[in-house]
Structures are given as structure tokens and as C-alpha cells.
Amino acid sequence: xxxxxGVRRKFIYYSASSSICIPRLMxxxxxxxxILPTLAQEPSPKPAATVERKLTSQLMTIYGESTGRTxxxxxxxxxxxxSTNVDILADTKKAAMxxxxxxxxxxxxxxxxxxxxxxxxxxKWSNSxxxxxxxxxxxxxxSTDGKxxxxxxxxxxxxxNMFLGLYAELKQCTVLRPxxxxxxxxxxxxQKPLSRAETVYAxxxxxxxxxxxxxxxxxxxxxxxxxxxxxxxLAKAPKPNSSKSxxxxxxxxxxxxxxxxxxxxxxxxxxxxxxxxxxxxAYTKLFGDPPDxxxxxxxxxxxxxxxxxxxxxxxxxxxxxxxxxxxxxxxxTKEELIYAMETTFRLNHLKIIExxxxxxxxxxxxxxxxxxxx
Length: 374
Fold this sequence. Notes:
Elements: H1 4-41, E1 51-54, H2 56-67, E2 70-72, E3 80-83, H3 92-105, E4 108-113, E5 117-122, H4 129-135, E6 154-158, H5 160-171, E7 174-176, E8 186-189, H6 196-209, E9 212-217, E10 221-226, H7 271-287, H8 299-309, E11 313-314, H9 334-347, E12 350-356, E13 359-364
Parallel strand pairs: 2-5, 7-10, 11-13
Antiparallel strand pairs: 1-3, 4-5, 6-8, 9-10, 12-13
Helix pairs in contact: 2-3, 5-6, 8-9
């Protein structure tokens, strides 16, 4: 039998228990309601940054297009390391800044020159002979008198012979050079029309960036040599004399590696001969008779012409088969042409030697020291 006092005690017990349990449940619910949304909204951790290789040419193409500047850089550039967390094209306005940062991290310096150019050099070149030569190339003033026509150009992958041919044509000069240089490839595409003088500036800069140095020798000649041979250059071209007659370039032997189309001299017997014959016929219909096969560019040919020019007899030399490249672009005087040929022989470690009072031949010449004559 339960007394009233027991009922009261039991009621009080459960009431007391309820008064304790309810706040605990509310606290658990409150904490859960606060923590779970926070956990649900917390972003997932970013993936660890990785590094990938990018072609420097691709990055600098983007740089040139985003800045409107023509990029001048060495032809052989290593790949650069780029973090995958860096989106170069996320903002085209900031692409140039991002690329400058990436190139700096990979050991390259980007230098803006004037309004139209940007130059890429390894940071380790800061006190190098290459930077000394680059500092000598002056950016030309843009002319507005119409004498420097504006134009664009694109060299996808030009070899040294093609590049120097374009250089001589634009600069209107005769290039004197060794037959073997450094095997460079040249890549450049202008982002806006450039004057002739600006284009020559770009080509001068590209030569130095690729290990070559152009040295002006008088008004009509430019000697081009590898960077490590520039101290051996002897630039002593005769002064121009307008009173003397000049020799047309077409009368001087052309010693070049430029391929020419030749006409087959017998009926075709193989597929390759048939293709050659078809090409020659197509060329004839468009341009007239194709030229004869280009003679080999060897020293004997230039030495024979030299002998004829100085009224001597040429005696064949065992060095006459050495390769030599020579192409006159501007009409020289006799003295200028003799100097140009003698300089070309010297750059190829050859020289003209007297056999007797009426005969000359080719001889070997050791590397010339700066300031000495042959």
C-alpha cells in the first residue's frame, strides 16, 4: 500500500530526474546543430601542388600575344617547370606577370625593350660576353618619313644560312662568314608591323642570343662569327670611293647552299626521276627554263675568281675543296671585293699565297690573333 507520502516522493523523484535529463538532451541537440552544418560547409582540402613541364616557346608566345611585343630569345630553350596551381590564362591581363614569375623561378630574365620588343636571357648571363654584345645593339628610332616601310615577319625555324640571307637582304650588305658557325635555329614572330631598321635590330639581337656576333666592317660589309671568336675579327674594309667603278654582284661567283631546281638530262627511269622531271616542267611553265645545278661552294671557285681579278694564274690547291660560302649583295669596287674575298678566306682559316710572280694558290692559315695581319 502506497501512502500519500510515497506517491509524493515518487513524483518528486521522477520530476527531479526529468528536470536533470531535459537540459542534457537540449545541450546535445544544440551542440550537434552547431557542429554538423559547420562540418558540412567546410571545403575539402586542396590537392597538393604538382609540377609539370611547359615548353618555353609556348609560354613566351602567350606572353608576346598578351603584351603585343615581339619576343627575342635563344632558339634552344629548355622546358620550364610550372606549378599546376598556377593558371597562366586565368586572367589574360595578368598572364604576362605570371609568366615573368614562372620564368624568373626557372632562371630566366624577361627585359622589355622600347615599345615593341621583349628579350629573354638566362639570369646567369648578367656579366657574360653575350650581355656585353647585347648592350652594343642600339634600338633604332622609328621613322615616320616613309623611308622605313612597316611590315611583319615570321621565322618558324630558320637555319643559319636562311637567316643570314634574310639579314643581308634587309640590311643591304654582304655578309662575310665562316662556312661553319654554331648550328643555331632561329624562331621569331613579330606581334605588330615593324620598320626595316627595327627588323634588323631584332635579327642582330637574335644572332647574339644564339651565339653569333655581327660586326660591321665599313658601309657594305658585315662579318658574322661565333661569340668566342669575336676578339679575332679584323675589320679594315677600304673606305668607299664613289669615283671608282663597281662590279655587279651577278658577275661574282655565288657560293651558297641554297638548293636550286635542276633539269634532268636523260629520260626518267625511276619514280624519283619522274618527280624531278615533273617539277622541272612545272617550273619551266611558270618561270621559264630552270637554272643548272648549283656548283659546290668550295674555296677553289672563289680563289680562281680572285686570281682572275688580280691578273694571276691560279694553281690548284689541296685545300681547294674546303667548303666556303660567299654571296655579294651590294655592288663593290675592285678593292672592296678583293678585301671581302681575302677576309672570307681568313675566316675559313685559308689565305692566298704566291707561287711565283705570276701565280697564286691557297694555303692554310692559323687562327689570327687580334690586331695582327696575315
